[in-house]
Amino acid sequence: MKRSIGLGLVLAVALTGCTTASGSYSSAGLAPIPGSITYNGQPRTKLTKSPVGSSFPHSFTDQWGRQVEEIYIIQPDRSLLIAERHYRPVFSLDDD
Predict the structure, then answer these.
(1) Where is the secretion signal located (predicted)?
(2) Phi, psi of 70 (to 5 degrees)
(3) Residue 61: phi, psi to the nearest 5?
(4) How far is CA 63 from CA 14, 51, 59, 68, 88, in A?
(5) Residue with the larger pLDDT of the pair 12 and 71
(6) Cβ neighbourhood burial of 33 (10 Å; 0-12, 13-18, 19+)
(7) How far is CA 77 from the centre of its chain?
């Protein structure tokens, strides 16, 4: 029992070291699609009160009727980077 708890703690510390401390991403992010906040360029208003590196979600329906959720990260110049994009399934096999 003690050995499994110790192993769990070691793994938790190792995973913590895998996160980025600076909050910066080396990639350019995902390309915007219709419905994305940055589809027609960066927004004109700057997010001045939000800390650099913070993230927030944005959900919308794309042009094919799919539910999309994007995660944005605020960059040091206050521009937005699309870090993640998830498509929600249109139907579920569990529906009756």
Answers:
(1) 1-21
(2) -115, 145
(3) -105, 125
(4) 41, 32, 13, 10, 14
(5) 71
(6) middle
(7) 18
Domain ranges of the chain: 27-88
Amino acid making up residue 41:
G
- Determine how many CB atoms are found less than 10 A away from the CB of residue 7: 10
Q: What is the pLDDT of residues 38-93, one digit of tens each?
A: 999 998 888 888 999 999 999 999 988 999 999 999 999 999 999 999 998 876 66
Residues in the chain: 96
Residues 6+ apart with CB under 8 A from 63: 34, 35
Q: Report the C-alpha gap between 54 and 75 in whole angstroms.
A: 8
